[in-house]
């Protein structure tokens, strides 16, 4: 039996998961779960990276206690955020959170020097204020001395791997999200950095997913012989790249939604698709294992997470499962709003911001919590439909099925709404797709599997999914038209014809 550890950390929680492979099936068991909450100091948001590392070590100790031996370890996390190391290999500051306000105005500052279309043509990456490029511009404005003293920039999974092994490498799938790579290559765009007067000396070697980093060097972990010999693997370290490897693909023409704090909606392509239309639609081309992911970031379950916190601050002890039960009886199609409104990006009172958006659009805000939550889910589903329409225009073909993986796969109401809004069957699961893809990459790296097709067949044999068929399609089509009108979103002639036909 091959035992390995997947460390899968999202923007709100982390997990240490044991994978056990018997040559035919992959069994997955969550051994340890921990929260991942930012810390705010003097108005600045940071990731508590040292606590996350301590949680990883606790999880690995638990794994060692339950397994005879651990053959390998892999880490995947969210993208774009980073830590800077000094000449002594010490972390210069806690990594800043991508929702920190320091990036306000940085996209405009960059675009004063390089047009957004030219930037997309060079990098193939979606224009979002959270991107590493804009964070570096903010860093340069805030503390140019810190950037000049830094010897290495490591993205979050690379930083955690450095803590484990002492190796300072950058993994490809996460590097592509930074907006600092030449599109379709494994090379940093040094000319771009020079054009923006950003130093580049701290950018290091980029390696492919599946690259062994070496063995553990942390003295605490080396004391346990059951984990000390584990090989640390650079898996597809962007959690969405790992999640895509964990999809039980059943059709060549599929789209996926990696559903968690963010919803990442996209499909797989052999090479980046970079043209005027993908630039206008603000799609992104992120690296995967032997392919690229053409996708768009959507606000996702962040809206529910912040609504839960807002309700609790008002004294309403109400969990997300409670809110979803209320949503089942909420008024359908009561209001429409753009889930991608930038006012919804920072943490805070999301319900009040949605009420404000409704009033601006001459709509009545929801009158009860059930209607509010139902409306959030409906409008997320409409945004999925909108991105699907755009994706089909780019690909010039119809998507037959949508896979929802990650935590959102257990949200039955959202899965059904997605099927209804898109008119496509939705296959939900697995919930732990990122961990499964992480473990699968370790199996490939250790020659337990020979190819990505073998991994895909293994996933199909090892996971359970649930099918959601579209219902009430005509009613959802009419509501989708109102959504487009209310949000001012525009479709191509082809997409409009699909609605009318």
Q: How would you describe this protein?
A:
The protein has three domains: 239 residues, ATPase, nucleotide binding domain (Nucleotidyltransferase, domain 5, 2-Layer Sandwich); 151 residues, Nucleotidyltransferase, domain 5; 92 residues, ATPase, nucleotide binding domain (Nucleotidyltransferase, domain 5, 2-Layer Sandwich), CATH 3.30.420.40. The protein contains 21 helices and 19 strands. The protein has a seven-stranded mixed beta sheet, sandwiched between helices. The chain has a six-stranded mixed beta sheet with strand order 3-2-1-6-12-11, sandwiched between helices. It has a two-stranded antiparallel sheet with strand order 4-5. Strand 17, helix 17 and strand 18 form a beta-alpha-beta unit. The N and C termini lie far apart (54 Å). The relative contact order is 0.12.
Helix content: 40-55%
How many individual β-strands?
A: 19
Mean pLDDT: 95
CATH class category of the largest domain: Alpha Beta
Q: Uncertain spans, ≥5 residues at pLDDT below 50?
A: none
CATH superfamily of the largest domain: ATPase, nucleotide binding domain
CATH architecture of the largest domain: 2-Layer Sandwich
Number of helices: 21
Principal-axis shape equals globular
- As for the number of domains, it is 3
Distance between the termini: 54 Å
Write down the CATH topology of the largest domain.
Answer: Nucleotidyltransferase, domain 5
> Structural class of the secondary structure composition?
alpha/beta
Largest sheet geometry: 7 strands, mixed
Q: What Rg is obtained from the alpha carbons, in whole angstroms?
A: 22 Å
Assess the beta-strand content as a share of residues. 15-25%
Widest beta sheet: strand line-up: 15-16-14-13-17-18-19
Protein name: Rhamnulokinase
GO molecular function: ATP binding; glycerol kinase activity; rhamnulokinase activity
Keywords: ATP-binding, Disulfide bond, Kinase, Nucleotide-binding, Rhamnose metabolism, Transferase
InterPro entries: ATPase_NBD, FGGY_C, FGGY_N, Rhamnulokinase
